[in-house]
Amino acid sequence: MTTDGIDAVYLTTHNWGRTAKFFQALGFRLDFETDHNSGQLRNGDGPHVFVAEVPNQDPSMQLVLKVADETKVQLDPTVEVVTPFEDTHYGTREMVVRDPDGRTWTLQAPAK
Q1: How many domains is the chain partitioned into structurally?
Q2: Residue 1's pLDDT is what?
Q3: Count of beta carbons in the 10 Å neighbourhood of residue 22
Q4: Contacting residues for 56 by C-beta, under 8 A, at least 6 apart
Q5: pLDDT tens for residues 50-72?
Q6: What is the CATH number of the domain that holds 27?
Q7: DSSP 8-class letter at 44
Q8: Confidence band for 24, pLDDT divided at 50, 70 and 90
Q9: Beta strand extents in 14-103 (DSSP E only)
């Protein structure tokens, strides 16, 4: 299996506005903002940062690994698949795998 690097960093926060201003102060530009307290920022050619306000949950961070074509993903049998590729509500397909220390990783591919 091959991934194409980090596609995105996904963050949850208690305050979308404050977090967006924090990243903008670090040189990120706002790509878009949603009507439900979330949005995407980017700095240069690196991965985008998607921030979602989730008030009743501890803030978290997740790295999303890019996959060009899910049909070419061949996992080593030692990799635990938590969920196979599934459609997302935001127009991609995602698979979740677990590493040996118990962390989950999201592999994101384009929609079919």
Answers
A1: 1
A2: 61
A3: 14
A4: none
A5: 999 999 999 999 999 999 999 98
A6: 3.10.180.10
A7: T
A8: very high
A9: 29-33, 38-42, 48-53, 61-66, 80-87, 92-98
Q: Which two tokens stand for residue 40?
A: 């995407």
**Which of 19, 14, 47 has its CA nearest to residue 33?**
19
Backbone φ and ψ of 98, nearest 5°: -115, 135
Residue 1 domain-assigned (yes or no): no
Assess whether pLDDT exceeds 80 at residue 107: yes
Please state, rounded to an integer, the average pLDDT across all residues of the chain.
93
How far apart (Å, rounded) are the C-alpha atoms in residues 8 and 18?
20
CA separation (Å) from 3 to 31, 37, 51, 100? 24, 30, 23, 18
User: Which residue do the tokens 């890019």 mark?
Assistant: 66
How far is CA 38 from its chain centroid?
13
